[in-house]
Amino acid sequence: MISLPVDCAQRSAQHRSHTRVVGVIRILVFLQLAALLLAPGSVALSSHGWCSSDPVVLIGDTMTHITLSAPANAPSRVTGSNEIVVTIPDTLSGVVVSPGPGFGRGESVSVVLSPDLQATSDWIEVTIQVFVPASDDTMEIGVEFATLDAGLLAPTHIHGVANSWITMSAGFQPALV
Question: Fewer CB within a 10 Å sphere, N or C end of the chain?
Answer without folding.
Answer: N
